[in-house]
Amino acid sequence: MQQLDQNKVKKLMGYRWTVWGVLVLSYVIVFFHRLAVGVVREDLVRAFDISGTTFAHLGSTYFYAYMLMQIPSGILADSLGARMTVTVGTLVAGIGSIIFGFAPTITIAFLGRLLVGLGVSVVFIAILKVQSQWFKESEFGTMSGITSFVGNLGGMFAQTPLALLAAAITWRYSFAAIGVISLGIAVLSYMIVRNEPKDMGLPSIAEIEGKAPAQGIGKPDLMKSLGTVITNWKTWPSFIMFTGFFGAYVSLTGTWGRSYMVDVYGLSKVAAANYMTAAVLGMAIGSFVIGKVSDTLRRRKLPMLVFGAIYVTCWAILVFLRGGQPPAAMMMPLMFVLGFTCPTFVLGWACAKEINPPQIAGISTSVVNTGGFLGAAILPPVMGNVFDRFGGQLLPVELYQKAFLYCFIAAVLGYLATFLVQETYCRNIYKG
C-alpha cells in the first residue's frame, strides 16, 4: 500500500471538523424553524385571525416542503455536492424567514414558511453525505448523534429564548433576525465547506483506513440508485419508525405542547415553554447517547428496541395517566425522557446507509428521512381538526387527551416497525 503523507492525514483529520462545524450551524437554523411556530402560536393567530387547523397547516407547510424535498436532497447531495446544496438552501431559508417575519397577510406567511421549508430541507442529508466522505464508517452513528445534538440547540432556542425574544422585539423581528443570520451562514458554507477530502488534495478516509479506494464508480446513475433504495424492503422499517416517532414528537414540541401546558396546567407562556425546552434538551442529549451506545455495542436493532420501548411508554403515561393529566411534578422529567428516547430514529439513518450501496449514502438516507417529515406534516393538522371540532365541548384535559391519542398511536406503529429492522452490526451489508 502506498505510504500516505502524514501531514495531509493530519490536515484532513483537523479540517473535517471545520467542514462539519459550518454545516451544523445551518442545521441549528433547521431545528429553530422546525419548532418555532408553536411558541408564537397566539401571536400568529392574533396577527392573521386564523383557526387552529389553519395554524397547524401553517406549521406543517415547513414539513410538507421538507418531506417532498428529501429524495431530491439526496440526489443533490450525491450529484451537486454538499457545498453548493447547503449554500443555496440556507440562502433560500434566510429569505423565507425574512418574508415570514414581515408577512402582511396569511398567504405571504405561508409563502415564507414554504421557502424556509424548501431551503432547510437539503441541509441534513448533505451533512450525512459529508460525514460519509470525511469520517470513518465506525464513526457514522456517533457523528449522526452529535449532529442531531447540536441541531437540537436550535430547537431549544425556539422554546423559552424565542418566547423571551418575541416578547422583547416582537415575533416579526425575531424571524427576520434569524433570516439575516441564515444569509451569513450561507456565505460561510460556500467559503469553507468542501465535498470530500480530494477537493483539497487530501487522501480519502478509505485510504487512511487501508481500504482500496473505489475505482471506476464515478457518479452513480441517480434514478437507478433511487430505484435500488426504494425496492429494498430493508429500507422501509426505518422509514416507518421515523414517521411515527418524529411525527408524534414534533406535534408535541413544535405545535401543541406549550398550549397543553398553558391550558391544562395553567402555566404562563414562558413557563410552559420551559417544559418543551426539557423535551428538546432530552432529544439533543439522547441523539448523542443513542448513537454512541449503538457504535460502542456494534449493534443497531437492540438499542432501537430498548430506547423505543421507553419512548412509547412515555406517550402512554402522557395520554392515559390520570385521564391525560399526569401529576405536575412528573411533567418535567417526563418531557425530558420522552425527548431523550425519541431519537432512536438516528439509528435508522445509519441503517439506511448500511443496507444500501455505500456510494449512494445521500439517496438512501434521504428516503428514510422522508418518513419523519411525513409524520410531522400529517399529525399536527389532524390534531388541529380535533381542537376545532371539539373545542368548547370538552374540558381542556379531555380535548388534549383526544388529540394526543393520535401521537400515541403513531409512536406505537413506529415501534412495531423496529422489529423488522435488519441488524447491520454497524457495517455495510449490502449485497447487490
UniProtKB/TrEMBL annotation:
User: What's its membrane topology?
Assistant: Multi-pass membrane protein
UniProt xrefs under Gene3D superfamilies = MFS general substrate transporter like domains
Keyword Transmembrane: yes or no? yes
Q: Name one GO biological process term.
A: phosphate ion transmembrane transport
Note the InterPro entries from the entry: MFS, MFS_dom, MFS_trans_sf, OPA_Antiporter, Sugar_P_transporter
Tell me where in or outside the cell this protein is found.
Answer: Cell membrane
* Residue ranges of domain Major facilitator superfamily (MFS) profile in the record: 19-426
Which molecular function GO terms apply here? glucose 6-phosphate:phosphate antiporter activity
A GO cellular-component term linked to this record = plasma membrane
Which keywords describe this protein according to UniProt? Answer: Membrane, Transmembrane, Transmembrane helix, Transport
Transmembrane regions listed in the UniProt entry: 12-32, 44-68, 80-102, 108-128, 149-169, 175-193, 233-252, 272-290, 302-321, 327-348, 360-383, 403-421
Task: Please identify the protein, giving its name as recorded.
Answer: MFS transporter
According to its UniProt entry, this protein's organism is Geosporobacter ferrireducens
